[in-house]
């Protein structure tokens, strides 16, 4: 059987794969080496172990359109083909170097369209990296951190033309990016175009981020997962952020948001963008605030606009904009239990109160649309008034802002700008459906992008779980992308291990939702793993799992011996007799042709009873019922 | 504010508490010492740390009826009162000794009823501990492991009388056990009696297990969590099982199932029972199978009956019985992807096939009811044909067995035996509700007791999460008790850390369901924690959380300094300005009287804008949006 998580029945033979040689990735030693970035099954950390999967590619209509997939080798000789977000780092045939950055896969597609032009671009300034005259420390933390890769001049739309995937889709054009995601999702390119044209899906792809492997966010496609990274004034280095990005994508993150604050924001983002195979999102307001030395009241449209352009030229694919926090909504948070918990929301609330004026993000929204359109940056309209506790869920403040986001969504679309909507937050299970239903209605089915939601407030240190529950449910009901939550939520900055835990928890939620939505082919992944389990193919079970290393490690903790990875002593049954074995025998007896008559079954059971009487098989006891 | 997770607004003043002295538990060094058993906040492992909570008691109508609660001290001077399952081990005023066992709290209540009598009881035999003539190794692994506590002669019903809580409830009697749980759940005793009488709730309490603190399982009460423990031929010792039990209850397990196999089954169970403050469940079939040297076909009603009586006399409170696996259902599993995955189910299927006869558990069911009635053992009717993969969910085999369980439920009730029904297993989200709805209809609303369900098969090593998602949902829809799943599911035997992870994950699922069901007072726990979060009361946040130690540890990883536990540098905001702080100021401005007029709000906002202009507060950036 050849299963495929995203619905394609592709087999290795139908594709031109890269070599399956087990030469380890030749990336320069560093964050992006598979050995350090935690490649699940390249076997890099154990040469003796058989290579669990290799990178394959599905070819499109042109030679430069090759869609990466993960091929899991089964001991049966078959392959299972899975969606892959890990980028070139897991392709032994590709040399990667974090100091050079990834190859610009989309560059030719962008140039061929002929609707963008290079230009001088904005002059970098010290404050871009948080270097302030008021600052006690001058200069970058480490100057050699500046990205050494060949400088590329920025591009933007030529004479005000609309260069967004939405504009192309509306003009009935199927771009290479659309074909790429169509192959990736196993749907017709026309389906992709239709969903984008209708505003029900977005394909975030800044013309200045040609390195990405295109992906799509929409309820008709696989549920996506975003991982937040970002250094802060307190901790972490540029190298660590790049490692977080490569690890997040290796474990399955579909997009990454760089929420860096403090110093080196510009440089950190440059390193992340140039090395990222997935779309990168940011919250420009954070950097803008740094530029005014953290004084909310000193923020202005000019500073914000300058920051958006700075990030647009670097290649940020989508931006969170908290333009729905209106002056008149602020008092609605007055009687809340936890008031305003969104950073962006609280900053804009502070600005509105300080000036007693309407938010400049709202008053300048159309101008902002024109900027985003020139680079094809996707809006992620932020929910600055989302609930920060169970008590505040689905309240007046939250839904008032949502109605404004619906209004802004229409304005953005009128400018051909792709748009998704951000959602909560902290919501008890019985109030989750109301959120997604209302968002879909008010925002014309624009993709919903939710943080969790957390279904209870009582478990700090386990909020990946409190929120994974809500995330699975809201994704089942239509959320297109889930923003992960790590165990450190509410407590501190996630480290690379927290990033892995958050991503895997959210891949579980996303896949559980794909199953519940009946996404074509989603269950084939579960079936492949369950077949392996039923047939005691332990290595196949490990290699098909979301985290093969940990599954293998847990198994070996109880039964270290290699023979334990055969049918002998599994944790469910034992060597000769076991529930699975009985079942298979029953299957062979009655299930062969799938339509045994009552007489055949009766005869078969008599036969079976003789066998058992003679066999005298011993029952070994499993470890769990 | 004095919140209470299970709805009572009790304050410390209304109860007679035990001392709050921080003298550490004087239990003999060993598994049950709080220092080793991981008391969340006794501070035993850090004397410098203020005692986060102390044991309190709510008094009932008689002096020997004292319901334990957990009182979390807040820095505001108030207490939050929470449901507590940790037993006397967390009461510094009580001396515990694992070699002596716990005090028999219920003994007097049982004697007062005068409907039971002591009797000689069954003679212990070598095979009770798995010592077989065929065995290469003779004798116990360690003979001095035999429980040293004073031997107590077993009790049973006098001349066939019904001594079950169901029988009392039907006779309109409110027992001390019922009053105990009524206080614990903050409902009227009559509600408890009604739910038990109607068969919608069970109160598992074997007359030979007087050590337990009574608890109730039913959809009208708090969702309960069971933790499985049990040694095996492969690993673990008696001491480790006792430690798993005390750790599980300390972290919140409401019942514990001892699934021990291999050797020392009888002795391990004795140690667990004598030291357990919660009801203990077992699967007698496992031990019966050991007695026939693991040969399923050699099982017989006599061997099974002998095992049930052996365990009944020891004090097992509820027993899983796979009496619904009928001969004619076995072929229904033939075309399944993973056949029969329940140990009990596969053993009975093997027996049925070997003899080509109907299950002796089914044919002798009424006799079994008479035995359970004599000790007040609760039936947990096992789902031997539950699905073991997403592909097999809600199939003919599963629902055919469920209909038989409905029939057996009525027979058990006709014998005054308390009964709950076990459920799956592996079920995708969209098929979960059908399970609980069908079970409630077919089984006359008898309590549903489900294992997860796991919502996907692809994440071995993370099945506490794949199943926590399904558990929260099915509990919201009416499941009364959740059987936890640990990260080791499908891979190996859980160690004490896995037990903790499983219990905490399931406490999250159970509480999320209590919130969604609108359980009276459930949200007060969340509110108390969110208030502490909003007011930067870090220690209160830690102490109110399900796992204070880990929450504190994660916080300190990023911001180790003690001052960090004040408003300075929290992971959401910062020292002077933060979203929470703005919100509080807005609250004081507009929220004071809760009914500000538009004019007042307008005036207030103008005032506020002046304040901000003057304040020049700096915005510190949080670590997560």
Automatic annotation (TrEMBL), chains A, B:
Pathway: Cofactor biosynthesis; thiamine diphosphate biosynthesis. GO terms for biological process: thiamine biosynthetic process; thiamine diphosphate biosynthetic process. This is Phosphomethylpyrimidine synthase. Its cofactor is [4Fe-4S] cluster. It comes from Streptomyces alkaliphilus. Signal peptide: none annotated. One of its GO terms (molecular function) is phosphomethylpyrimidine synthase activity. Residues 1-55, 116-160 are annotated as: Disordered. Belongs to the ThiC family. Zn(2+) binds at residues 426, 490. The gene is thiC. [4Fe-4S] cluster binds at residues 570, 573, 578. The keyword 4Fe-4S applies. Residues 1-35 have a biased composition (Low complexity). Keywords: 4Fe-4S, Iron, Iron-sulfur, Lyase, Metal-binding, S-adenosyl-L-methionine, Thiamine biosynthesis, Zinc. It catalyses: 5-amino-1-(5-phospho-beta-D-ribosyl)imidazole + S-adenosyl-L-methionine = 4-amino-2-methyl-5-(phosphooxymethyl)pyrimidine + CO + 5'-deoxyadenosine + formate + L-methionine + 3 H(+). Binds 1 [4Fe-4S] cluster per subunit. The cluster is coordinated with 3 cysteines and an exchangeable S-adenosyl-L-methionine. Residues 54-117 form the ThiC-associated domain.
